[in-house]
Amino acid sequence: MSGKRLSKDERRERILAAAARVFAASGYDGAGMREVATAAGISTPVLYDHFPSKAKLYAGLLESEVDSLLAGWAELPPSGTAEELLRGRVEAIFAWMETNERGWRMIFAETPSDESVAQVHRRGQARATGQLTEVFAQVPGLALTADLPRERANEVLAEAAKSALNAIATWWWSNRDIPREQVVAITADLLWRGLGALIQEDT
Prior knowledge:
- The protein is 74% helix and 0% strand.
- Helix 1 (8-30) crosses helix 4.
- It has nine helices and no strands.
- The protein has helices at 8-30, 33-40, 44-50, 54-74, 82-99, 101-109, 115-137, 150-173, 180-196.
- The protein is mainly alpha-helical.
- The protein has two domains: 8-52, Arc Repressor Mutant, subunit A; 58-196, Tetracycline Repressor, domain 2, CATH 1.10.357.
- Keywords: DNA-binding, Transcription, Transcription regulation.
- Residues 32-51 bind DNA.
């Protein structure tokens, strides 16, 4: 029996899809490379040609989930006000989580212990901070008492907002009875009540 020979990229995508199913069913510690190879329809040596360790495989999958999460932000339309801008981003984040439980768990609900996985996690967090910094850069003048350049203030505010989002996303993982709309509302309230007081209205 013969079939189409997969390219390297196609085989990699098949491996990642199979690994996602295996990790979702067994968790990182319980998953094995042989199990992933079987799910992908390849031999274990071929799997190791693509990913030399389980940690590298998990890191590759984590990176693809971060890409998926952050790609959605770039597709959002511009907002009329700073509050709409912030609430729109919060809504997009939690909507992605609700439809992508695997990525939600990998990014927000699991603490990476292996260093190669932790490095990917840190890069993803840094990318999220960068995107939030761009959001804060679109907010009008801020009445800050801190004597910081606006660019540095945007970065600090983005880091604080990201930490709050991470914490609420982790909490929601264990409190699924709370509807997404309410999680979005309380997160936006938390972030906007402080930021809103700093907004200098144009005159």
